[in-house]
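Continuing the batch. This is chain 6 of the set; chains 1 through 5 are on the previous pages. Same settings as before, nothing changed between runs. Recording input and output for traceability.
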Amino acid sequence: MRRSVLLIEDEESIRELVSDYFTQSSWQVIEAANGEEALELFKTRPVDLVIVDLMIPKVSGWNVCKQVRSQSTVPIIILTAKSEEENKLLGFELGADDYVTKPFSPRVLVARAETLMKRVEHTVGQEEPLISFGNTVIYERKRLVKINGQPIELSYKEYDVLLHLLKHKNFPLTREHLLNQVWGVDYFGDPRVVDTHIKNLRKKLEADARYIRTVFRIGYKFEVES
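Output for chain 6:
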C-alpha cells in the first residue's frame, strides 16, 4: 500500500524539493504552506506520517504538533534549525517521534521517514500482551498501552523507551544506551531528549510511573517490586 505524508513547510522551494523526493520513493504527498491549512487537511485526509517545520505561519509548528497528537498517534517528524536544541526538546514533549535539522538532505529525510514507518508497521498485527505491571497492560504488536482497561496515547518514541526499559527490567540503563537503542547510533542530538521522554512517560503512566526509577549519575531502570 502506498504511504502518505502530510508535509508542512512554508518555504515553497524546500516543500517542492522534499515533495519530489518522497514522490520518487512512491509516497503520496499532501502539502501545506502553513499550520492552519495543515490542520484542515489533517481533519479530512488520512495520512501515515506528518512532517512539520516548527517555524510556520498562522498556526505554529508547536500547536500543529500538539493538536495532531491530541487526535492521533500518527508518527511526527519535526524540522528545525541546528541551533534550536530547546525547540527539539519541546517538540518531543509535544509528541514528535523524530527530528531533522536544517539544512538537510531530502534523501536523508526520506530515509528517516522510511525507517520510522518500518518500525511502526513491523509491530502491526495480533494483539498480544507483553507484560503487565500495576494497573498497566502493554500489547506489543499493536503498540497499545492500557491503564485500568483504558488506552493511553504514547508517541512512538515514548512507547519504544518504555518497551526497552521493560525488556531490561531491574537493570540500570544509561542515557547513551537508550539513545543508541531507541533513536539509533546516528543520533547526535541532545541526550536530554531521554529525560524529556521519561518525564512524559511518568506523567502518562500516572501511579504506575513509580516503576520507572532514576539511577543517580547513570540513567533509568524499570524496577519490579519484590
